[in-house]
Amino acid sequence: MLRPARLLPAARLAPPDGLPTPRSGMRISPRCLGPATRCSGASRGGTPTRWRGAASKPRPTIAASACVSAHHGPTIEAVFAAAAQALLAATVEDPDSVERRERRCVTLEERDLELLLLRFLNELVYLRDAEELLLHADRLSVTQNTGARLEGELAGERIDPGRHALASDVKAATAHGLRVASTPEGWTAAVTLDV
Asked: Are residues 96 and 167 in the same domain?
């Protein structure tokens, strides 16, 4: 079993301007992080080593949160477009500032409408992360046969920090509380975004 010969304080391992946190861009001062220290009695006789932080100062807490939204519309396409608009509104402070300069076609298939909505929203998150695109759902067509199929056109533009004030970093749409249903007034959906 390998055991550390010497523990270095976090300040010696971190860049001088702080540690970047994944996806948020926040920088945490190494002074807020203490050196890792071994718990007493751990790692004797080949037992797994447990570690605890030895910081005397409070550490910053970065907590995950969720944004739950409900959407209503006369058609299933209107509900999918409203969910896409809610995702855009959770990402940027002013969704109307996103101009329709680039277009992407999307075709997705799933076994039911709930999974199709989940996959559609996560496709928008992927395009934002991979290609830095903020997208509106311009034209959508949702059909149901043996499964559910979405064909559509997305329009938007690349993230411009000078024009787009980012509100939050939506990591994904989740299956928690996901619901798509037909009502007498049309369609309704509930979506949870992991922020």
From this structure: yes
> CA-CA distances (angstroms) from residue 3 to 19, 47, 124, 149, 158?
25, 12, 44, 54, 47
Q: Are 158 and 102 in contact (CB under 8 A)?
A: yes
Nearest alpha carbon to residue 30 among 47, 8, 63, 5: 8
Nearest-angstrom CA–CA distance, 154 and 132: 14
Q: Domain end: 36, 63, 90, which one?
A: 63
What's the predicted TM-score (pTM) here?
A: 0.67
Is there a single domain that holds both residue 87 and residue 146?
yes
Which pLDDT tens digits describe the chain residue by residue (195 residues)? 444 444 444 444 455 555 455 545 555 554 544 444 444 444 445 544 444 444 444 444 344 578 888 899 999 999 999 999 999 999 999 999 999 999 999 999 999 999 999 999 999 999 999 999 999 999 999 999 999 999 999 999 999 999 999 998 999 999 999 999 999 999 999 999 998
Give how far Cα 37 sits from Cα of 6, 54, 152, Å: 10, 6, 54
Task: Give how far the C-alpha of residue 185 lies from the chain's centroid of Cα atoms, to the nearest Å.
Answer: 31
Give the domain extent around 177. 66-194
